[in-house]
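Appendix B. Chain record.
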Amino acid sequence: MFRVTVRDHIMIAHSFRGEVFGPAQRLHGATYVVDATFAAPDLDADGIVVDIGLASERLHKVLADLNYRNLDDEESFAGMNTSTEALAKVVADRLADRLDTGHLTSITVTLHESHIAWASYERQL
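Structure tokens predicted for this chain:
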């Protein structure tokens, strides 16, 4: 399996519902380093998994829709706890919708919450 990863970042504000979240139930900010990994069993006719420049551009556009936003105010997140895991899925789904997936078999999005904690979502294509 071949894989190519591109990286960007995002800054958001949000809060959580549920006692399990403790003080994070209150509004707080988060900065994520975001990796998007594209996988394919073979290289395409050009000898690549995905065009790195195009993948970087599309990831940036997906993140731009969320960057510097309070996710509590975003209609698309109404009633949802925007955990790191849930946001990884949202980014992966939106990225898949904006990219010609061609011969790709999966996209994995990893949100690094810190240098010691991160979460990923792998979307099969």
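Further analysis of this model is presented in Appendix C.
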